[in-house]
């Protein structure tokens, strides 16, 4: 363990790095003029490569954190208190994911635009949490090795068969449901294959928890992560080519032709190794707080950049139109602003929630008072009408 609080600080730091990379990645990708997107430019190529690492790292770390918290409690199966918390968290992420795509103007006109039903990071992580919970419950009464094996199998199967299901449009499904499986309607992330990264993160958490008391856990974990990562990056394609030549199965050849999933998984393992190596220096309180408030940062960045609820985001006004001289300082300012706002919310979260609770209570009291007065008025009105009717009959 890293500290008396039983907290793995390198994981929080890693998640902070991933969310900051996501902020600048979304800002640059959404606002940079296509004229400057030159693959031959070394700076742009390096930026694009690291941007491709961000989502796999974020999904993997999310699976790691949730599962580590899930399995470290003594209770097993349905008695585990983290099950209820996890289900609530998963549903919360789904709800927030949809709310961020809600256009209030259309909503008040009784319309839900197609963009509302698109699936993104929060939807996928919410579903991933449910999947991990399901696997945990199904294997809780089995041998201990069944859980990590099941999680690793999910990753391997989703990644290996991606060339097969990538072209499926799931046209027989309602579009809102199909969006969870296919990008053909505009979804950015889908549960296949991205659940594979969270499942792999869950697998790492199980293994880390199993050996957490070992004196050389970090030495062994660093070397295993580096070796696995380098092998996946440089040798996974030759390995699948060999499997194709040996078996004749074209699926292996299809994997080689677009082997981004296994290569990115290798990148993730290398990033894990780097952060474990630097763990003793990654104890800055602000950095760790950023890693613990990624949801707030994500929500704030989505509202500012994409204009959730109003449609008045930076993307609407500067869509693919800015030069690097503006993009670079703009991305830095964007990261700082979103991070600062999230940390301020975290600092005053208790007070904010108290005010919301007080507002709800005040609103409830006003509603009940209005309901009481309206009821009294209707009773009085009814009495007057009945008296008039009786007089008229007389």
UniProtKB/TrEMBL annotation:
<feature type="transmembrane region" description="Helical">
    <location>
        <begin position="145"/>
        <end position="168"/>
    </location>
</feature>
<feature type="transmembrane region" description="Helical">
    <location>
        <begin position="215"/>
        <end position="235"/>
    </location>
</feature>
<feature type="transmembrane region" description="Helical">
    <location>
        <begin position="91"/>
        <end position="109"/>
    </location>
</feature>
<feature type="transmembrane region" description="Helical">
    <location>
        <begin position="261"/>
        <end position="283"/>
    </location>
</feature>
<keyword id="KW-0472">Membrane</keyword>
<feature type="transmembrane region" description="Helical">
    <location>
        <begin position="12"/>
        <end position="32"/>
    </location>
</feature>
<keyword id="KW-0812">Transmembrane</keyword>
<feature type="transmembrane region" description="Helical">
    <location>
        <begin position="52"/>
        <end position="71"/>
    </location>
</feature>
<keyword id="KW-1133">Transmembrane helix</keyword>
<feature type="transmembrane region" description="Helical">
    <location>
        <begin position="115"/>
        <end position="138"/>
    </location>
</feature>
<feature type="transmembrane region" description="Helical">
    <location>
        <begin position="295"/>
        <end position="315"/>
    </location>
</feature>
<feature type="transmembrane region" description="Helical">
    <location>
        <begin position="321"/>
        <end position="343"/>
    </location>
</feature>
<feature type="domain" description="Heparan-alpha-glucosaminide N-acetyltransferase catalytic">
    <location>
        <begin position="7"/>
        <end position="215"/>
    </location>
</feature>
<dbReference type="InterPro" id="IPR012429">
    <property type="entry name" value="HGSNAT_cat"/>
</dbReference>
<dbReference type="Pfam" id="PF07786">
    <property type="entry name" value="HGSNAT_cat"/>
</dbReference>
<protein>
    <submittedName>
        <fullName>DUF1624 domain-containing protein</fullName>
    </submittedName>
</protein>
<feature type="transmembrane region" description="Helical">
    <location>
        <begin position="188"/>
        <end position="208"/>
    </location>
</feature>
């Amino acid at each position: 363990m890293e500290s008396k609080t039983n907290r793995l600080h390198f994981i929080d730091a890693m998640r902070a790095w991933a969310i900051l990379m996501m902020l600048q990645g979304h800002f640059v990708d959404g606002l940079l003029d296509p004229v400057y997107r030159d693959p031959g430019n070394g700076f742009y190529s390096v930026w694009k490569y690291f941007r491709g690492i961000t989502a796999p790292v974020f999904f993997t770390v999310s699976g790691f954190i949730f599962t580590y918290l899930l399995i470290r409690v003594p209770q097993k199966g349905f008695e585990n208190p983290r099950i209820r918390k996890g289900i609530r968290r998963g549903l919360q992420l789904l709800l927030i994911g949809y709310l961020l795509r809600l256009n209030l103007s259309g909503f008040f006109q009784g319309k839900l635009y197609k963009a509302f039903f698109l699936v993104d990071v929060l939807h996928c992580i919410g579903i991933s949490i449910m999947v991990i919970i399901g696997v945990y419950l199904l294997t809780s009464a089995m041998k201990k090795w069944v859980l990590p094996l099941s999680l690793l199998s999910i990753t391997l199967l989703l990644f290996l068969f991606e060339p097969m299901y990538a072209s499926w449009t799931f046209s027989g499904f309602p579009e809102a449901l199909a969006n969870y499986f296919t990008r053909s309607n505009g979804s950015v992330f889908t549960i296949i294959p991205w659940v594979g990264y969270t499942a792999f993160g869950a697998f790492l958490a199980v293994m880390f928890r199993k050996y957490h008391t070992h004196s050389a856990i970090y030495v062994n974990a660093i070397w295993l992560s580096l070796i696995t990562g380098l092998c996946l990056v440089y040798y996974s394609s030759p390995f699948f080519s060999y499997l194709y030549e040996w078996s004749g199965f074209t699926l292996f050849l299809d994997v080689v032709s677009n082997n981004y999933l296994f290569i990115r998984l290798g990148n993730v393992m290398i990033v894990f190794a780097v952060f474990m190596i630097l763990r003793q220096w990654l104890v800055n309180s602000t950095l760790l707080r950023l890693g613990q408030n990624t949801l707030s940062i994500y929500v704030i960045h989505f509202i500012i950049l994409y204009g959730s609820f109003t449609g008045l985001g930076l993307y609407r006004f500067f869509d693919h139109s800015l030069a690097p001289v503006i993009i670079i300082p703009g991305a830095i300012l964007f990261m700082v602003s979103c991070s600062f706002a999230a940390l301020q919310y975290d600092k005053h979260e208790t007070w904010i929630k108290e005010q919301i609770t007080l507002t709800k209570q005040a609103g409830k009291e006003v509603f009940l008072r209005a309901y009481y007065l309206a009821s009294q008025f209707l009773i009085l009105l009814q009495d007057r009408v009945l008296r008039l009717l009786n007089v008229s009959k007389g």
